[in-house]
Structure formats: C-alpha cells, structure tokens
Design goal:
The complex is a heterodimer of chains A (about 260) and B (about 450).
Chain A (H helix, E strand, L loop, with lengths): L4 E10 L2 E11 L4 E5 L6 H9 L5 E9 L2 E2 L5 H7 L1 E4 L6 E5 H15 L7 H12 L6 H5 L1 E2 L5 H15 L3 E5 L7 H13 L6 E6 L3 H5 L4 E6 L2 E6 L2 H9 L16
Parallel strand pairs in A: 3-10, 3-11, 6-9, 9-10
Antiparallel strand pairs in A: 1-2, 1-4, 4-5, 7-8, 11-12
Chain B lengths: L2 H18 L5 H17 L15 H4 L12 H10 L7 E5 L2 E2 L13 E5 H6 L18 H8 L4 E6 L9 E7 L7 E2 L2 E6 L4 E10 L6 E10 L4 E9 L5 E10 L4 E8 L4 E10 L5 E10 L4 E10 L5 E10 L4 E10 L7 E10 L5 E10 L5 E9 L3 H8 L5 H17 L5 H14 L3 H5 L1
Parallel strand pairs in B: 1-5, 4-7, 5-8, 6-9, 7-9, 8-10, 9-11, 10-12, 11-13, 12-14, 13-15, 14-16, 15-17, 16-18, 17-19, 18-20
Antiparallel strand pairs in B: 1-2, 3-4
Classes of the chains: A alpha/beta (about 260), B alpha/beta (about 450).
The structure holds adenosine-5'-diphosphate and magnesium ion.
Chain lengths: ~260, ~450
C-alpha cells in the first residue's frame, strides 16, 4: 500500500526564522498518527503548511499527497483533493452564515468532481444529519461562522465541517485545547465516528488526554522543529508521566505561550 | 471652476426665471432669485473649501448641463416597470427630472397623506413658501443654490398628525441617458405631522448609460413624535453626476432614519444635514458606498445636536475597488446646552485594490460636558486569516473575497428597513461586487 501522505525533509521558515528543521513523516490510508510536542515546537506551523497558508515559507523538502505535489497546490485545491485542517484557533467571520459558508465549500468541491451542487434544502438535511455527530445545535448553523462561539463550540464546529466535507486527510490542530471534559468527550466521539479505512488523521496535541479517547496507531514527538521520537500509543503515556524534558536536550520548548 | 462654466449656469437660471416670471407668485420669484444670487456669490466649490476637500466638481461645472423637457416614451415604461419597487403604494416617476403623471400612481392614498407633484402644486398657486427652503437654504452650497434657482419639479408630501402611512412613498428618478446634457433639479418637500409615520424611498436610476447631472434636494420636517424613514438608492449610470442634499429637522421626541446606498455615478455626493429642533429626538444615519473603475463617491453628513437629550447613530461603510475613491466627512456638533447627548459615529472602508482610496474624516465639535460621544474610522483590506479559512475549506480565492465583501456590506444593507428595496440592493450588489462571477465559473 502506498502512503496517503509523505513528508520528506520539510524545512519551513516563518518571520525570518527556521521553525521546521527537516520533518519526515509517512501516513498510510486509514492511519491515525498523533503528533505531540510542547508549545512553540512547530505543530501549528506543520498544520498550516500542509493546508497551504502562504505566510509560511517552505525552504526545502517535499510533500506528496495521494502521489501529487501538495506544496504546489492552492489551499482550495488541497481541500478539493481531500485535505482538511481543523484550526487550533478557528477564525470568526461576521456576516457569513455558517450554513451558507459550508454549502459554498462543499459545492465548490462537488463542482471540481463534476457532481451536481446541493441546493439549500438538500444541504440543510445533510447538515442536520452531520451536526448530530458533535451535538451542534441548529442555532449555530444560522449564525455567522464562529462569531461569538465559545471555545468548545468552535472546536465542535470544526469537526462538524470535517463531517460534511469528508476529507481523506484530517489534520486536527489541538482540537482538544480549551475543552472541558464533557466537550472533549463529544468532540472525540465525533472524531472517532469519522475514522475509517479511507481517512487518515494527523492528531496534533499538547496533552496525552485526547489520545485516551482517540487512540492513535502511532505517536511522534515534535520538538524544536524536529521529530525526535516515534512509537506506538505507549509513547504518549510515557510522555505524560515524564514530561517533555525527558526527551532530553533541545526537546523542551517554551512553555505556555498565550 | 472655470468662470465659463459658472456663467452657463447663471445664464441658464436667469433665462429660466424670466420664462416663468409671468404668473409666478412673488415668493417663488424671490426664492429663485436668491438661488441665482447665492450661486453667483459662491461660485462652484473648490477643494480649498473644507467641505469639498476631496471632491473636484469641475467635471460638473465645466459642462453645460441644462434642463431637458421630455415626453413620455414607450421605452421609459419598461424601465419603470423594471425599477419600481413592487407594491401598490404611491409612486412618482420623474424622467430627467420631469414629472410624468402617466407613469405615476397617486390614487388611493390613505386619509391624512397628501402627495403632489411640485410643478402642479405651484401651478395651482399652493402657498408653499413656508415649506420650500425651510431647511435647505440657498446659501448652503452652490448646488443647493442652483437647485433653488431652477425650482419647479419635485414633490410635496404632507402627513397629517397621527397618520400612519402603511406603504412607502416611492420616487423614481430616471435618467434616460440618451440626451447628453440633461440636468435634473428635483426638490422633495416633506412635512410629517405630530405622531405621524412615513417611509420614503428615493431611487435615482440610469435607464441607459449617458452623461446626466442630477442635483437633488430633499427637505424633511418632523413634528413632535413623528417617525420618518428616508431610503435612498443612488444607482445612476457610471458616467452620470449626482449631487444630493437631504435636509432634516427633528421635532421633539421624533425619530428620523436615513439609509443611503450609493452605487452609481462617475461622481456622486450625498449630503445629509440633520438638525435636532427640540429635545428627545433620535437620528439614525446609515450609508453604503460601493465604487469601482474611477468612480468618486462622496459622503458628507452633518449632525447638529442643538438640543438636550437627543441621540444619533451613524454608520457609513465603503467598498472600493480598482481606482475608485470614497470619502466620508462626518460632522457632529454638540451645542453648549445639548446636555445628555448620546452620539455614535462609525465609518469603515474596505479597499479591494492597491489603487483604490478612502478618506475618512470624522469631525466632532463637542461644546457640552454631560455627553456620550464616540466615533471611529477605519480603512482596511480583506482579512487574510478569514480568506485562508474559507479557502482551506475549498472556496476559491475569488469566491472567498466575494463572500467577505458581501458580509462587510451586509451590515448596512441588512439594516435597510424595507424588504423590497433590500432585495433590489442585493441584486445590484451581486452584479457589482467582484468575485461572485469568477467564483462560480
Ligand atoms: N505567523 C508567525 N509569525 C511569527 N512567528 C511565528 C508564526 N507562527 C509561528 N511562529 C513561531 O514559530 C514557532 C512555532 O510555532 P507554532 O507552529 O505555532 O508552534 P506550536 O503550534 O507547536 O505551539 C514559535 O516560535 C512561534 O513563535
Ligand atoms: Mg499550535
């Protein structure tokens, strides 16, 4: 079987500083790979680069997605190809209705696939169905995208979008951060329901807590822009017990950025 | 401001006055004469004047616009059918500034509401001297003076005390665009009696591309407790010129709202002069201006808090693309005894291109001490983070830009308190704002 995602020697600069210093990673179809790391280690940078944010400059390396050169694609082309990133900080967009936004997104992709667009009624039905997965109330769909949503509601909205868009690759950037235990259960329930043999996931987290609910196939530790360790799910537990400092020199990142 | 240009308008006004002198009442002759005198004294404004700093009117003053008397033509009917708002309420149609009775609808008005063509009212010798010019004085600007000098067309609207008008009164000002020098000088005069309620819609629309000049004045006087909503759609052709002055005086505890959507014109200026004439009034001023190409859209407002316990809410938003320029000049004057004034002003501009420009100029003069006054002005571009968020979900850049631009405009469009006009504005915006078409390609 060929990997769905293959990252080779990825170097990334942001604001004049090298943040990713040679990342190698392979993700097989259906595989769930957790990436753990302290604050500032480059987790969000990796997520953003994979989804095409142009403020991050790739200086070296390549990324193949489904055999295609991911880095040469526009963000929307990546989405059409099946990449989805749940933002660590979902963006509030006043004046753009959540439902309208998501229907526009889904239809944009359906057009590239030569499928018929969904009208408002059909889409509403689909959205209702999918929203149950994360217990997102109907009222949220009528509101502006993420505007005035609590932290937990924003994260549920991300997973709801993932459920509608049905990506091949989901990159979940600290989807657990800022969630209380009930919200964490709901969100991980949604994520687990979306696991399938056709969908791979990069589950990015600072804490081991999420991985009790979303059990990964593999765990890698990112520190200072490098993957310093890769193992099975036990690695997460070990990290939890010993802390990032245990990984040794250069692994400990700056703690608790706002 | 060539003298040649001013001279054309002065000659025009003198001729106009002379042709109509016979049979005209003394007040009317004096009113027009004062217009001529003020026009001669002031001349057309130059950018040296504070109030005209950003707007060069030489494309208007340098051309020989003149009134054109039109006849009712078949082509116009179709345009009226297309542009009039749905509904059965009163409708007054003007073509190149000329009232066309055959295309208008003034029957079946509710008791207490009178709507007449100004020309017909003058012909009948109605005593209008107390109404016409009560708010818009000829010395306000050269354009107000020019409108006064050419006073003839327009409308008189009277609402008796306590009358609630169920349907809006709509004015459709059509510029035909085939005569290349048409000057329209409509004046709408409105008296809203105590505790009456009225919605007015003024639509200025180009039936075809052409060079015309509309120089409109509207005067609204609200009695105690009256509620008047004034809605204006400026959708002239993009080769046309438009200067509009809305002058309102708010009676005790009255409520006045103005919503202006400015989309058309090579050069368009919308002025709002609003004065509280007694305590307890509430005034809302909203505007949206959307320009592209080389359009110049000027928004000028003056809120005069002349009495205590009045509140004003002002929101103007601009969307500017290509080489378009938008200006906002918002004056607020809080006079010394206007205690407990509550005033908020906001101007936000969205630039969609490198060459587009916006000038935001709040100007507050606060002479009372027990007041709440806030203002803010911004000029910015589309939020890159929001764009990325949308694109990361599969929405093309063009469609994402369109979504965000519509969202920006929506705050003002959505607040237009008349669904049929809102629909019309949304349809116009869907055609005008960039991105929508590419996004669906
Ligand atoms: N847009 C940016 N501008 C400047 N510095 C950035 C930006 N994004 C990330 N960084 C820096 O890159 C490093 C990695 O950040 P990030 O990828 O957000 O880490 P993590 O998600 O693991 O906490 C940090 O030192 C951070 O300050
Ligand atoms: Mg992060």
């Amino acid at each position: 079987m060929k990997p769905l995602l293959s990252i080779k020697g990825l170097h990334v600069r942001v604001a004049g500083r090298e943040v990713l210093k040679g990342i190698d990673l392979e993700l097989m179809p259906g595989e769930v790979h957790a990436i753990m790391g302290p604050n500032g280690s480059g987790k969000s940078t990796l997520s953003q680069v994979l989804s095409g944010r142009d403020t991050y400059e790739v200086t070296k390396g390549e990324v193949l997605f489904d055999g295609k050169d991911l880095l040469s694609m526009q963000p929307e082309e990546r989405a059409h190809a099946g990449v989805f990133m749940a933002f660590q900080y979902p963006v509030e967009i006043p004046g753009v209705g959540n439902l309208h936004f998501l229907r526009t997104a889904l239809n944009a992709r359906r057009r590239t696939e030569g499928k018929e667009e969904l009208d408002a009624m059909d889409f509403l039905q689909l959205a209702r169905e999918k929203s149950k997965l994360v217990q997102l109330d109907q009222a949220f769909m009528q509101r502006s995208v993420n505007e005035g949503f609590s932290g937990g509601e924003k994260k549920r909205n991300e997973i709801f979008q993932m459920a509608v868009l049905e990506p091949k690759l989901a990159i979940l950037d600290e989807t657990d951060s800022g969630l209380d235990i009930d919200a964490l259960r709901i969100v991980s329930g949604g994520i687990n329901a979306l696991r399938s043999a056709e969908r791979s996931m990069l589950v990015i987290t600072h804490y081991q807590r999420l991985l009790e609910y979303v059990v990964p196939d593999k765990v890698s530790v990112l520190a200072n822009g490098r993957i310093v360790s890769t193992g099975g799910k036990e690695l997460a537990l070990e990290l939890e017990k010993k802390g990032y400092a245990w990984l040794g020199q250069g692994a400990g990142g700056k703690e608790a950025r706002p | 401001m060539t003298d040649v240009g001013l001279q054309h308008y002065l000659d025009l006004a003198e001729r106009f006055q002379a042709e109509r002198a016979a049979g005209a009442p003394a007040w009317l002759r004096a009113f027009r004469q004062e217009g001529i005198a003020q026009l001669a004294r002031q001349g057309f404004p130059t950018s040296k004047l504070e109030d005209w700093k950003y707007t060069n009117v030489s494309p208007i003053s340098g051309q020989s616009f003149s009134p054109v008397r039109t006849v009712h033509e078949a082509g116009v009917e179709a345009a009226v059918a297309r542009l009039a708002l749905p509904g059965t309420g009163p409708l007054l149609v003007f073509v190149d500034g000329w009232y066309v009775r055959e295309l208008s609808r003034l029957e079946g008005l509710p008791a207490g509401l009178t709507v007449r063509s100004l020309r017909e009212a003058l012909q009948d010798g109605e005593p209008l001297e107390a109404l016409v010019g009560s708010r818009a004085r000829a010395d306000a600007s050269a354009f107000t003076a020019l409108n006064a000098a050419l006073l003839e067309e327009g409308a008189v609207v009277r609402v008796a005390p306590g009358t609630v008008c169920p349907e809006p009164v709509q004015f459709l000002f059509l510029s035909r665009g085939d005569t290349h020098v048409a000057l329209a000088s409509p004046r709408v005069v409105v008296r809203a009696g105590d505790n009456s309620e009225l919605t007015l819609v003024e639509s200025y629309v180009g039936a075809a591309p052409g060079v015309s000049f509309t120089n409109a004045v509207t005067e609204v006087v609200l009695g105690t407790g009256a509620r008047v909503t004034h809605l204006k759609l400026q959708a002239e052709s993009e080769t046309a010129f438009h200067i509009g002055g809305l002058h309102a005086e708010l009676g005790r505890d009255s409520r006045f709202a103005s919503h202006i959507i400015s989309l058309g014109g090579a050069l368009a200026r919308n002025e709002v002069h609003s004065v509280f004439g007694a305590e307890g009034g509430e005034c809302t001023l909203q505007g949206l201006y959307v320009g592209h190409g080389t359009q110049h859209l000027d928004n000028w407002t003056n809120l005069d808090h002349a009495h205590p316990r009045c509140s004003s809410r002002e929101l103007y938003k601009g969307v500017l693309d290509d080489k378009a320029r938008g200006t906002f000049h918002g004056k607020v004057l809080v006079r010394p005894d206007a205690q407990q004034t509550d005033s908020r002003q906001s101007n936000r501009n969205l630039l969609l291109s490198e060459a587009a420009m916006a000038d935001a100029r709040p100007q507050l003069e606060i002479l009372a001490d027990d007041v709440k006054c806030a203002h803010g002005a911004t000029v910015g571009r589309l939020d890159e983070q929001a764009l990325f968020y949308l694109r990361s979900r599969g929405i093309s850049r063009a469609e994402a830009e369109s979504l965000l631009t519509h969202a920006f405009a929506k705050e003002v469009v959505g607040a237009v308190p008349l669904a049929s006009l809102r629909d019309q504005v949304e349809a116009l915006l869907a055609r005008k704002l960039p991105g929508a078409k590419e996004g669906r390609a």
